[in-house]
Request: fold
Amino acid sequence: MAEERSITKGEKIERDVGIMRNDEILQSKIWRTVLHWTDMINTRVGRIGAYLLIPLGSIIFFEVILRYVFHSPTIWAWDLSVQIYAAILMLVGGFTLLHKGHVSVDVFLMSLHPRKRALLNMINATFCFISTVVLISYGSIVAWESFEMGERMSTVWEPIFWPVKMTIPLGGFLLLIQGVANFVRDFATFRAEGSK
Amino acid sequence: MDLWIVSLIIGFALLLILVIGVPITFGLTGLSVVLLLIFRDADALYLIIAATLKQMSTDIFIAVPLFILMATILQFSGVAGDLYESMHKWVGPVKGGLASGTVVICTIIAAISGVAATATTTMGLIALPEMHKRGYYMPIVLGAIAGGGALGVLIPPSVLMIIVGGYSGVSVGKLFIGGILPGILVSLSWVIYITIRCAIRKMEGPALPEEERGTLWEKIVSLRALVLPFLVIALVLGEIYGGICTPTEAASFGVFGALVCAAVNRKLRWSNMSQALITAARITGMVMWLVIGGGCYSVLISSTGVGAFVSNVLTGLPTGPSGVVLIMLGVVFVMGMFIDPVAISMICIPIFMPAILRLGIDPLWSMLLFTICVIVGYITPPFGINLFYMKGVAPEETTMMDIYRGAVPYALLMVIVLVFCFKFPSLLIWLPNTMIK
Reply:
């Protein structure tokens, strides 16, 4: 862990973002910038999701202490932790995709020639697009209805419900942009391997 | 449309998605979207959002990121290193002692960690080089450490059990406690296997030379390594057993306990902590998005009537309830060789659960059997995930073949324990039913 500390902050972000830095094969400067920004957004947002684990754990921890030691539980702790948890889930989806962390059975994929692998990856990305488009479109409708109705959670504290619902299209969006970025990279690999 | 055809279409589509390597979460969600559009209508897509929302607001799932965080903190806390030191002094002089001691440590780590990677990656880095240096027969060691990680999800706390419980409606607390006895049995059977094997082939697990053995006083002092882990075990499991807290609340205490461990060992630095948080976030993303995909897919299964149909077919089989359970376990075992354990749970439970309920099989018993069977999948070749973690931390000359050869006996012993639990259900359900009313 010693070398961990000697890395400056700038380099660290550079390292986090540079996870898939095979962008040299991309010809277009615009795309390179777009990809850079996509990675940057998901790295930052994922980090926010990661740091949200601190309030999540603390709230639940202190709620138990309040309940048993001071016999005065709050009415909001549980609702708030549900909201934070929902936010974490949606914020880290794209981050996980950036690190190619979503599980797949990649035996067949790995046995392929890089060009064919890139092609199959592009085909597989369709599933990502279908899912995220539904999450964004239908998710927005559901969240908007909740907002208009002023829907509240059916708990004692009764917090407004739409922020939780709003995270669904947000999570879908983060996944979609990362999915597109990965698609473009696969396309570039596909082209580069083809011209060899 | 004939449900036979719908079931076949879903089955084949699922198989295709798995084979061509679509990330399983998108595969399950995307498949559900397309098939809901075909078999139902566009309005049915609201079900996808409802399913997603349900996974996002299921109370028990909040425990998942917390237990994962607890594991990533423990990873840098130095607890495993201290445990190894102590074990080295106590059982090093016995033939094969370091290997069976490693299994025991993995069992202790399993009781404070809910994921399968913790013990494998930490002990792989600490214990493996030591035993390599001392001329242990590598496959025995490789299998022990890969298997030791799998205990992490069998012995509570367990992220996998939270997901199985939250998804099937079985009490997570009961699943946790039900995992203790089979966990200990598995660990015991491994220690016996190592001891017998090393007693017969003396070269495979040499005892420590005289000069490296510690004095009695050193041994006793080294036992302080046990204090912290047992404190955390008491903190987390004690609360669940006592019925004081929900597993989620116990998880927050687990994170606290892990932080204390790290602080006592002077490892609590922001750089470590930030790394632990980010790793935890990534694993959470992986696991919980699988659960979201699984939620969408279970909507597909129930709303097209496939779940009820399959449960009809299974109920009509001449094999009787225990035969059905055996068939299910067989399917899960084969899937375990190829697919991620959480994904198997997502795919199988919506199909199995209606049949289990209709046949009047005890849900707790069957879900525990299911969980153990899924866990065997962590160490079965060719694609048990722990075997690949092992490859990542093993000395360079280790081949995948060595790891396979090492893992098979341990997997077999786990299957034997599974068979025992199948034959004698009280092994699984007596303890949870006595401890939690």
